[in-house]
Amino acid sequence: MKTLPNCPKCNSEYTYEDGNLMVCPECSYEWNPEIEAAENAEKVYKDANGNILVDGDTVSVIKDLKVKGSSLVVKKGTKVRNIRLVDADHDIKCKIDGIGSMELKTEFVKKI
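RE: above sequence
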């Protein structure tokens, strides 16, 4: 007999399967264990070349990027030091010399 996982909400051991879903009879919570596992997995940030990025890395911009709401442009080849990774639309928070605080997408940078 296979062992079923405990309920992620109330930690009840009396869960049962209902098709693709798991159900907890105590708190009435229903979940898909495959989706639940994928959501709990840590996000991996990769640059344009597929290299894994971590906080504190130095990256280089791979194309000219217009700064929204300004006439400034971040030129191709600009080095960005000490990046911070965040879970948002723009994955990188950083400071660029001459421009200031910015947010960048990982698809527009490469790791140095």
